[in-house]
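== Item description ==
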Amino acid sequence: MSRIRKRAAVVGGGIVGVSVARHLARRADDVDVTLFEKEDRLAAHQTGHNSGVVHAGLYYEPGSLKATLCLRGVELLREAVREHGVPYEECGKIVVALGERELPRLDAIHARAVANGVPGVRLIGGDEITELEPHARGIRALHSPRTAIVDYVALTVALAADFRAAGGSVRLGERVTGLEQRGRAVRLTAGQGTEEFDLVIACAGLASDRLARAAGEPAEPRIVPFYGDYFLLDASTRHLVNGLIYPVPDPRYPFLGVHLTKRIDGAVMLGPNAFLSLGRESYEGGRPVPADVRDAVGFPGFWRFAARNLPAAVREARTALSSRQFVAEARKYVPALPSGAVARGPRGIRAQAMDARGGLVDDFVISGTEHIVHVRNAPSPGATSALAIAEHIVGEALRRRSWSGTA
């Protein structure tokens, strides 16, 4: 006798949501999977507005979900790009120390990278820096040869094709506004309609906290959106950068600061900065979105964060107001950069989870019940880790299987 087919929904058509839907459709042959995306295309938000870097796992606390899923995610991502012919390049990355004060922090990153099993990572001196990046300057650097770049939008589209081939259904232009568990069923509201599913996995990115609250989850962590602007080097100066050139993270600042990133199409980006966005999806700037502003400035955690990070706010404000200052930050690492040879590039918006004390939530956060799973926080390296996040979430769901009525 055939088993009764179950229904599952995945909310969010970024690379994390598409990866989850694909993995579930491939692993559970007795489950019909539907992917909901509120836009008219996939990868419309964070996936389509990031730098395209495939992170190797340098910075993350050994044993954390980030560290574990980043390393596994790179492995799965490389398999996927080979299978689908998606553009991918291991251009390598150097994390550059400009002065002696940065060396202990660089050594600490190296120790973490080694503990995480990052392949090929090593410390190099100034001479080797210029062998890899002839126009870069520094006294020492960490070299990660396997750090790569990729077209995440193309990869998301390819993964969605896999999902459809496995029998999955993609519903574009359908915004999910409510989730409610009733017994063993989950009522999902999208547009004017309500449907029931046995399992819902929400990968809603910038709206993850709102959807979680609608389903009865705690209000925190809260999403506070930070925008990051990029500038593009003029084509005549792209030769000044071969791969990825990053600063050593400064513990005085909550965000990394301006760095130089080669893109898969050959362009070179400077950025990003990080500043409070007055709209969760305001990629072009423009008028504030009242609901988004209220959610951010009405959250006590934001003010606690701001009070502790006034120097960072000053630094980021300079780069937000002046392209010359923006380039000046990058010229610390590549002095040959001309101050005027840049054009304004894309803007990304980071769905940064913040706790009530004003702390930035660093690790991935996945919560919920046996019938509703929420990805509450998946910042960088979220895209790199997407296929591993999917493997982790779906593996846990199938291990429990109480929602499907089978052992």
Observations:
- The chain is about 30% helix and 25% strand.
- The two ends are 16 Å apart (CA to CA).
- Residues 69 and 389 are 6 Å apart (CA to CA).
- The mean pLDDT is 94.
